[in-house]
Design brief:
This protein has 268 residues and is mostly beta strands. Helices cover 7% and strands 41% of the residues.
């Protein structure tokens, strides 16, 4: 268990401070003493109820959250990540850290909280926060997808493999076959001499984050981000070959990987 202490600047804005590892749990301050700057929600209509609860990291860093009782942990992730000093929350760049929330209990294990948990259920509680960069659903797995085979009316054929290793490294491989002519084609069977081949191979590090707006709105979506280096080899049927190496940053939404790719668990 931990004990918490907090300080207030001369202007009344709360500061996030380190806490000492002692036997007592963090004490929740009086909600009436908390300024609206904590979450920016005190400017809402006075008829809406506000609640307060503590969030803390295993390292001891903590903060107090004040928000509407109807807000959820999912909607508060951006504020919580920023207040706890986790990787800078840049929804359109690096992404919001993927967080997991636990309610400490007197038993040996803490209970995992659902992201749909309402703030009203956390009034007066202390919630432990863990940053989860490599969740179980994708860690140590290989995702595979193969497009329909080429034909006279199908422009290209693509096969993809994505390996997400438990040490945070990835390997991505994509083979692409496509017609090398630009004009109108008559029905025919694909032959090796009539198509070009492109091989793309990337390696580097991966992690899961939350990004905004991928679905056309402001909702947060869990994605796998890849950062590293890639080599592209282009083999032309006209004896024109090319080679390119460059830095890459790619994203794969969780929904896309689960719905459109097959996956297998890698051997230990």
């Amino acid at each position: 268990l931990f004990s918490f202490s907090a300080a207030t600047s001369p202007r009344g804005t709360p500061r996030v401070m380190e806490m000492l590892r002692t036997a007592s749990a963090p004490a929740l301050r009086d909600s009436s003493a908390l300024p609206a700057a904590v979450t920016g929600c005190f400017g809402e209509a006075s008829t809406k109820q506000h609640v307060c609860f503590n969030v803390f990291l295993p390292s001891g860093r903590f903060a107090t959250i004040s928000c509407l009782s109807t807000e959820t942990l999912k909607g508060l992730q951006l504020q919580i990540a920023a207040l706890l000093g986790l990787n800078a929350a840049k929804p359109l760049c690096d992404g919001i850290p993927l967080l997991r929330f636990f309610r400490p209990s007197f038993s040996e294990f803490s209970s995992l909280l659902c992201l749909d948990t309402l703030a009203a259920e956390l009034q007066g509680c202390s919630v432990q926060v863990l940053q989860q960069e490599h969740p179980d659903w994708c860690r140590h797995r290989c995702f595979f997808r193969h497009s329909p085979a080429m034909d006279w009316d199908i422009e290209e054929e693509i096969t993809e493999w994505l390996w997400l290793f438990s040490n945070g490294q990835f390997r991505y491989l994509r083979h692409r076959y496509f017609w090398n002519d630009k004009g109108v084609r008559s029905p025919r069977i694909c032959k090796l001499g009539e198509v070009d081949r492109e091989e793309f191979e990337g390696v580097g590090s991966w992690r899961c984050v939350l990004l905004e707006g991928l679905g056309g709105d402001s909702s947060l979506e869990e994605v796998v981000t890849l950062e590293g280096w890639a080599k592209t080899r282009h083999q032309s049927s006209r004896d024109q070959n090319a080679y390119l190496q460059r830095k890459i940053r790619m994203t794969f939404p969780k929904a896309t990987l689960l719905e459109n790719y097959e996956s297998i668990f890698l051997d230990p």
